[in-house]
Every structure is written in structure tokens, then in C-alpha cells.
Design goal:
CATH class of the largest domain: Alpha Beta
Low-confidence stretches: 23-42, 333-343
Mean pLDDT: 82
Largest sheet: 6 strands, mixed
Order of helices and strands: HHEEHHHEEEHHEHHEEHEHEE
Strand order of the largest sheet: 7-8-6-9-10-11
Structural class: alpha+beta
């Protein structure tokens, strides 16, 4: 064959030409067969890939640069509530109007940066609310331009619920379900920083139950736990929704009263708690009389830091106990040359 190719046209015999034509045809057929084989292999791979994605439990989809669906698996169709065969050509934003702006912005970011983008989104509400993690990745063409965006989402609701449960256990009292010392301190720190910036006033109440030890000693810790739960409910019912009632430890509680400066209003709320705690508790016969002693510290009059406020409210509470219990005292901070610090002045008594 090489010898025939190297000969000039005038040197070729008819048989030689026939041999070259047959050889060329054989080469064309071989190339065609190779292309067909390659195409069939590509088709097989694509069919396998599509089959794998279609059966994936995770929503998986492909959209063009205009945000219109090119491919979507069954999980995506189930999530969007549209049959899979009807999804191609539909804009994702039209199916998810509440996330329209976010979707457009995210797709534009992937196209501009040519990088993957991760995030979280919620679907549904109430008991039907689900959390999804998603990843958008650019699909590049031969010239290096983004021709499509591939998306995959994963339902992480169980993980998020587990994380929320762990966080709740770490930040809420297991007995009363009130914020614990850790969460209380975080909220007090945040409120103090907020008030430093805005000048918003607030007050801190430190509450200790009177005669609680007698309940534990006479009736046992189970009854004491029931009393603490009932006392917590009464305190919650005596303040506003925006206020924080927390259990520090044992029979010690705190209340953060937001956006309140008028001492008369603070006194009224504190006295309401005193009145509720003085009512009989439903614990059976022989329950000792329980009441509450409350100390008050106001920001910024009685302290400019969380530590100062907590210390001064605690001191005012101990003054209430020392002077007969079942009453409210307010810490009065004055100039050192006028009056000794750490003085608690009575506001009301019951």
C-alpha cells in the first residue's frame, strides 16, 4: 500500500487503483465504525449517568444560564410537586417564587465566578418545614464558558433537628425549660452591649424562693422539683413576652426586663411576681409556705457591666431576705462620698 501511494498517477495500473480505492474505503469504514462505537459508548455512559441520577434520593438537576431546567430527577420533581417530564424548560424561579431573588443572584454568582456555591434553604412551614443543603456548580463548555449549572440538594432536616436539640439541652434548664445560666449570661451580655450603643434602659431582677429548703427537707426533692416547675410558670406569666426569665441554679432565678426605665413599672412587675409566688402551690397537704425575695438592679443607674448588674441585684435580693423576705428591694448606687456602695434600698414589702 505504501508503494502504491508513493507512485504517481501515471504509474498506477488499474488494479493498483482498485486496491487503493478498496483500502480507502476500508479506512473510512473503520473510522465510521470507531465513531459509532464511541457514540454508542457515550450514549451508554450518559444513559447510565442519567439512570443513576434519576434514582438518587437527593434532588439533582441541571439548569441553563437563564435558570431554566434542562434535567431534573424524580427527587427534584417530588420536592417541587411537578412531574419530572414536565420540568425541562421551566424556570426554577417560577416554581419557587418565594426564593426568586436568591436563585437569580446565586446563579449569576456561579456564572460570574465559575466556582461552586453552597448554601441552605428551607421548604415548607411548621411541622412540614424541611432543611436542605445545596451545591451549585458551573458546567463549562470547550471554550471555558459556563453553559449550564448543576445543582444537588440534600435533606438535612434530621441533622438540623438534632443540632437544635443539642443546643436546647446546652442552653435550657432540663427541669423548668427556662434559659439556663449560660443562655441568661449570653442574653445579659448582648443586652448590655445593645444598651451601650443605643442608650436603651433595662432592669435585672434576682429572685430567690423563700423556704424552698424546707420543702425539699420535708417533702423530698421530687416535690421540690414540682414546686420549681410551677414557680417558673408563674414567673413567665408575670412578665412580658420580650422579657427573659432564667433559672441560674437551685431556687435562684433571674429576669431581664427590656426597654424599661420607670421605677414604678419595674416595681409593679416585680410585685406581680411576689404576689404569684406567695399563692399556695399545688403540692399536696403539709406544703410549707413559699414566697419570693427579689433584688433589682437597673442599667445604667446601678451598673454598667453585666457583672456589676448581677452582683448588685444579688445584693439587693439578700437585703430583701434579711429584712423579712417576701419583698422587693432595689439597689441604689450613689456617689462614694455621699453613701456607701452596695446599699440596697427597699421599694415595697408584702
Amino acid at each position: 500500500m505504501v508503494e502504491l501511494w508513493t507512485k504517481g498517477a501515471d504509474e498506477l495500473t488499474p488494479s493498483g487503483v482498485d486496491e487503493l480505492v478498496l483500502f480507502d474505503r476500508a479506512i473510512d469504514q473503520a473510522l465510521l465504525g470507531s465513531i459509532e462505537s464511541f457514540t454508542k459508548e457515550k450514549d451508554r455512559q450518559e444513559r447510565s449517568f442519567v439512570s443513576m441520577l434519576s434514582g438518587s434520593p437527593d434532588p439533582t438537576y441541571l439548569v441553563d444560564v437563564n435558570g431554566r431546567i434542562v434535567f431534573a430527577n424524580i427527587a427534584t420533581a417530588t420536592l417541587l410537586g411537578v412531574p419530572a417530564n414536565r420540568l425541562p424548560g421551566i424556570a426554577v424561579a417560577d416554581l419557587w417564587p418565594e426564593h426568586d431573588n436568591d436563585l437569580r443572584s446565586q446563579f449569576e454568582t456561579v456564572i460570574e465566578t465559575k466556582k461552586s456555591l453552597r448554601g441552605e434553604v428551607t421548604v415548607g412551614a411548621g411541622s412540614e418545614k424541611r432543611w436542605y443543603e445545596y451545591v451549585y456548580s458551573p458546567v463549562m463548555d470547550a471554550s471555558g464558558s459556563v453553559e449550564a449549572i448543576a445543582g444537588v440538594a440534600r435533606d438535612v432536616t434530621e441533622r438540623r433537628n438534632s443540632e437544635a436539640e443539642i443546643w436546647h439541652h446546652a442552653n435550657y434548664d432540663l427541669l423548668t425549660d427556662l434559659p439556663n445560666r449560660r443562655l441568661f449570661r449570653d442574653r445579659l451580655d448582648q443586652q448590655t452591649r445593645h444598651s451601650e450603643r443605643t442608650g436603651a434602659p433595662f432592669a435585672l431582677l434576682f429572685i430567690d424562693l423563700d423556704n424552698f429548703k424546707e420543702v425539699n427537707d420535708l417533702l423530698g426533692h421530687e416535690v421540690g422539683d414540682q414546686l420549681l416547675k410551677q414557680a417558673a410558670e408563674r414567673m413567665l406569666g408575670s412578665v412580658r413576652d420580650e422579657d427573659t426569665v432564667a433559672r441560674l441554679s437551685g431556687d435562684e432565678f433571674t429576669v431581664i426586663l427590656l426597654d424599661i426605665a420607670d421605677i414604678a413599672q419595674i416595681e409593679l412587675l416585680a410585685q406581680g411576681i411576689i404576689s404569684e409566688l406567695a399563692k399556695p402551690f399545688d403540692l399536696g397537704d403539709g406544703t410549707p409556705q413559699v414566697s419570693g425575695s427579689i433584688g433589682i438592679a437597673r442599667y445604667p443607674q446601678d451598673g454598667g457591666t453585666p457583672d456589676q448588674l448581677l452582683m448588685h441585684a444579688d445584693q439587693a435580693m439578700y437585703r430583701a431576705k434579711k429584712n423579712g423576705r417576701n419583698q422587693v428591694y432595689c439597689f441604689a448606687q450613689t456617689q462614694p462620698d455621699q453613701q456607701k456602695p452596695n446599699l440596697a434600698e427597699p421599694m415595697t414589702s408584702a
